[in-house]
Inverse folding.
């Protein structure tokens, strides 16, 4: 079964890459339903959700189908253990001694914000900073409609989501119809639920910076980083091994059969009635469940899955896509690199060839059935895309002139190659 995540990249090209430098998931969803000190399975991605759960006292195994993504995540939090936390110097964020690298998602978001700022002044960094300092959701709603969700932006977004561009088509096809309208609605709704000033996901998505009110992450201990496809890993552990699981948006993109496959693997690997959290860009989740709290602004649904109820067939045509999902307001365009993707899902993709549980063996909660491989920090096969140049030509929607928007991420890729990180080869 072909799964789009097994290639380890969001854009067209061959080499695996760091897809997500950060995550865009609110762990309050998991913390609201996971029993204390649970043995938890998490999708690794950039490691933020796994780290939040470990800090809360859970025993976490983080799996990822991408060796490159997993090595990056594990190196971030290994450095935090060694040096005692996170620091920021000159606007560059470092976790311990390891810089938080901008993955493909973050590069696309930055291009999206730049494009939005060209057509709507409210999206310029200084103006956006003032918006994000607001504490009244009612005032935030008014500001959104008056200064941010302007006709020029709506037109830019409609054009942006008209084609896949550099985003891989197997991921692009997972988007729901009229994603521009869907994402604008979600952002407007999300900005009325909680104060911007204390919402780290609003700051990260709309400005590309960390929220000043959020404390820096503390050192993390005890996460087992496992290179594996999630269903194969779940089948490899003893029945009911995990108390809980969090799956990011693993079902956004894979073929329909993967939904049923994952459901059965969960029924084996997670204890009966153990909470399972799933995110999706769809309005209706592919596995039904009860809604959970969420401040991230992006997801169509965040649910505690009911594994006793049959799946809906997992139609990827209706599903969301981390590679393209991003921020409606930024005019995200995978065609132009203006895609505010946020996709908090590193990887999920079903690659049965990776099967089993290659846990490192340094987690006392690792099942006896899981032996062998170590964390693949030295085995990743390339952390960067093949020199993605993202260019767009967009007709000015209201000014009557051509607006030429060029967003190149080649320079940052070249710089990263010149200064290899511990997780790159």
């Amino acid at each position: 079964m072909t799964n789009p995540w097994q290639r380890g990249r969001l854009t067209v090209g061959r080499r695996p890459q760091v897809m997500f430098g950060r995550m865009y998931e609110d762990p309050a969803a998991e913390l609201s339903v996971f029993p204390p000190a649970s043995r938890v399975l998490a999708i690794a991605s950039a490691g933020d959700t796994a780290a939040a759960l470990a800090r809360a006292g859970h025993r976490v195994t983080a799996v990822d189908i991408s060796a490159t993504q997993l090595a990056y995540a594990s190196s971030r939090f290994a450095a935090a253990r060694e040096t005692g936390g996170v620091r920021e110097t000159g606007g560059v964020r470092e976790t311990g001694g390891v810089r938080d690298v901008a993955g493909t998602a973050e590069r696309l978001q930055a291009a999206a914000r730049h494009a939005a700022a060209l057509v709507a002044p409210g999206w310029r960094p200084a103006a956006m900073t003032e918006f994000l300092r607001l504490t009244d959701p009612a005032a935030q709603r008014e500001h959104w409609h008056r200064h941010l969700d302007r006709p020029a932006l709506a037109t830019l977004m409609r054009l942006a989501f008209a084609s896949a561009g550099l985003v891989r088509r197997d991921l692009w096809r997972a988007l729901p119809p009229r994603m521009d309208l869907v994402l604008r609605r979600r952002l407007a709704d999300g900005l009325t639920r909680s104060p911007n000033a204390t919402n780290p996901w609003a700051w990260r998505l709309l400005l590309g910076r960390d929220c000043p009110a959020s404390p820096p992450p503390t050192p993390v201990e005890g996460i087992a980083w496992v290179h594996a496809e999630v269903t194969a890993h779940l089948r490899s552990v003893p029945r009911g091994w995990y108390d809980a699981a969090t799956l990011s948006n693993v079902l956004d993109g894979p073929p329909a059969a993967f939904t049923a496959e994952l459901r059965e693997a969960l029924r084996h690997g997670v204890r009966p009635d153990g909470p399972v959290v799933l995110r999706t860009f769809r309005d209706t989740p592919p596995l039904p469940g009860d809604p959970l709290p969420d401040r991230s602004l992006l997801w169509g649904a965040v649910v505690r899955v009911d594994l006793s109820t049959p799946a809906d067939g997992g139609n990827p045509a209706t599903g969301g896509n981390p590679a393209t999902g991003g921020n409606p307001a930024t005019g995200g365009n995978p065609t132009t690199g203006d895609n505010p993707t946020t996709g908090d899902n590193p990887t999920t993709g079903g690659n049965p060839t990776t099967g089993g549980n290659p846990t490192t063996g340094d987690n006392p909660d690792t099942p006896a059935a899981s032996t062998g491989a170590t964390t693949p920090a030295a085995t990743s096969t390339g952390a960067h895309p093949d020199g993605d140049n993202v260019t767009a030509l967009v007709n000015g929607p209201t000014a009557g002139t051509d607006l030429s928007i060029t967003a190149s991420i080649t320079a940052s890729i070249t710089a990263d190659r010149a200064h290899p990180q511990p997780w790159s080869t």
Q: What stands out?
A: The chain has one domain: 1-425. Residues 1-425 form one domain. The mean pLDDT is 73.
